[in-house]
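note to self — DONT lose this again. spent like an hour looking for the file last time. sequence + predicted structure for the chain T wanted, 405 res
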Amino acid sequence: MIKSGLAEKLKPLSGKVLFDTRDEHDIDSFHAQYEVKEELGRGLTSIVCKCVDRFTDEKYAVKIIDLNQNCDLDVEDSIVSEVSALSRLPQHPNVTALIKVFSTNANVYIVLELAPNGELFDYVNQFAVLSEKVAANLFRQLLLGLHHLHYHDIVHRDIKMENVLMNEKLGIKLTDFGFAKRLEPGAALHDLCGTLSYIAPEMIRSELGSNLAGYGKEVDMWACGVLLYTLLMGQPPFHHPTKLSLMRQIQECRYDRKSDTWLRLSDSVRGLIAGLLQVDVKKRITAEQALQHPWIKHDDFRDVTRHTTGKRKFRQVVYLALFVVSIRSRARATLISSNGGNQLQLIREHNAMPYHIKEVRAVMDDIAFTIYGHWVQREDPTRRAMMFRHRRRNRSHSRTFSLNE
């Protein structure tokens, strides 16, 4: 059973962060020390909530895993991996700190440092793309946190925007160590895990049996390349509805290098992305090398937003004026063609539900795509749907992948 085996596997942590209390109401239990507040997020196997220390009023995040609903060895291994990696890792400003772990017969409570501003994914979702200046600041912090992990021989294996949290002043923290492994010198890993669009080619080859040597820390650097590309381009470099086609794209490193958005980027950051998205592991740059790259070290970037803000605002004003004129002219045309119908009722319908009118909807879509054409392209229905999405979807937690699914 997971409940008894988990305590044994976590036993080496006793006296550090682990509190093994069988009774939920014990004086040393989680609920005796912390008060659970609102929910922050939800995955396949856990719920993350804000919690407050009853004695100090300090705010933390707690990951709660219900062992009755998750009696699975994969869940057990994920808990052990996360707790083991974080408990052995010295604290770093760009890595989420582990505070305490409470293990009971029913639940595991992992108390973590709180990042109050949510995921990097949510921050990026507010914009079409980030300027190079903002992206460089965020990416440098990610590299610092990842270099700290690699220096202590830990591979994260699930670097993605949802696993990067944000605090005040655009500070970031790397989190979710469910797939993390400590990698001894000379050792290698072989299992396919993480988030499919971020996994490295050698991880796929290892699963297919064509890479018997396995893989190492380099998979995190590939994922960093995917993340940086997404920050600057507004879309991931590798995306396809079918899993096999997506993996083929990754193995062949086929991504958009011809669009206007890509060509507007500085040569420096395009070189950095190329160095990270390198199929040959020996040629792929490390976290330490990336931190020395001119784009990171010397702010060698093109701040597109700073130079084009005035022009973009003027364009938006012009398009807004054209939009208003178009609506009025189409409304007049509709009223004239009504042949003496209830004109007042038609005007009210135009005012209350303009997007429900086919002609008006066409104008609105056309202007929207003109303004955001660098992000949402007409020929891609997936990105078009994303632009007009108003409700946030529940994103599933990362999981291991099987090629037989």
